[in-house]
Structure formats: structure tokens, C-alpha cells
Write a structure and sequence with these properties.
The chain is mainly α. 55% of the residues lie in helices and 0% in strands. The chain contains four helices and no strands. The chain has helices at residues 2-5, 17-32, 40-51, 53-62.
Length: 77
């Protein structure tokens, strides 16, 4: 993903369905195994996704259900 994101704000350049598909995976993946500092483009991409109003709304509306996540939810995001 680092290579793919070079020079792009989103997976295909502009925000697209590919980003909608990537958002949930990256959201939870970073909880399970935090994205390392050496993957700065991927970390920034995840942050940009979370700034999108549609994705941010999903995260907020799901907040009451975090206790169902089997590996636990961090106190962030």
C-alpha cells in the first residue's frame, strides 16, 4: 500500500469505492496491529479516510457497539 499511495491522497487518486472498501479493514487492522511509523503513507491515508464525513459518521454511530469487537477496542479513533 505504501507504494500504491505515493503521490495520491486516496487509493485511486480521488476518493472512490476502493477507499470505502479499504476503510473498515484499515480501521480495525490498526487496532489489532498498529500501523508502524515506517508506513507513514498508510497511516496518513487511514487518517484521511477517518476525516471523511461519511466514514466519520459510521465510526461515531458504531461507537456504542465497540465492546462486541472480540479483541477489544482502544480508547482512540
Amino acid at each position: 500500500m505504501e507504494k500504491r499511495l505515493e503521490g495520491r491522497p486516496f487509493a485511486s487518486g480521488d476518493f472512490s469505492l476502493a477507499d470505502c472498501a479499504a476503510a473498515p479493514s484499515l480501521f480495525y487492522a490498526d487496532w489489532v496491529c498498529p500501523i508502524s511509523q515506517e508506513h507513514s503513507l498508510l497511516r496518513a491515508y487511514r487518517a484521511r479516510l477517518l476525516e471523511r464525513p461519511s466514514i466519520s459518521r459510521c465510526v461515531e454511530e458504531a461507537r456504542p457497539y465497540r465492546h462486541f469487537f472480540p479483541l477489544g477496542a482502544p480508547d482512540r479513533d
